[in-house]
Inverse folding.
């Protein structure tokens, strides 16, 4: 994740607390993460809807945990839906800017709205650095280079 996002002076507010009283947290800078559901491009901005997941120590969404709800990110940048595709993992630093209506099926709900300062799109094959000893496999972390980005991945110990 870019250094500027790591160094941002964010407030650690749980999603459930914000969603219960969105107006009391307006204008607060947060770092949230999730999985993209949809991107909607307007004339001068984009709206990215995501499922919220808590972040781990490296600010990567913990998709092994249950999602806590939805949120929408408003970006002044054009977000190409082919790049910001459904199912991709993101981390965003942004200001809580109230809420926004979303329609899910025939139900209308209100979800937190963030105005993004920065959005980090995690590499498609990102994996946390962990070890697994089930079924005789040991996974070890390694760095892999893709363009300008390094990311953690994993290899089976027998194929280094």
């Amino acid at each position: 994740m870019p250094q500027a996002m790591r160094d941002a002076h964010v407030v650690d507010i749980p999603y459930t607390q914000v969603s219960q009283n969105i107006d009391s947290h307006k204008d607060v800078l947060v770092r949230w993460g999730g999985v993209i559901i949809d991107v909607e491009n307007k004339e001068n901005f984009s709206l990215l809807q995501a499922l919220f997941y808590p972040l781990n120590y490296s600010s990567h969404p913990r998709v092994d945990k249950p999602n806590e709800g939805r949120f929408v990110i408003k970006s002044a940048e054009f977000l190409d839906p082919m790049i910001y595709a459904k199912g991709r993992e993101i981390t965003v630093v942004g200001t809580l800017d109230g809420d926004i209506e979303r329609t899910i099926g025939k139900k209308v709900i209100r979800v937190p709205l963030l105005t993004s300062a920065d959005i980090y799109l995690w590499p498609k094959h990102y994996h946390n650095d962990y070890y697994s000893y089930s079924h005789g496999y040991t996974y070890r972390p390694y760095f892999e280079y893709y363009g300008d980005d390094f990311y953690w991945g994993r290899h089976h110990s027998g194929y280094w």
Summary: The chain has two domains: 3-121, 125-160.
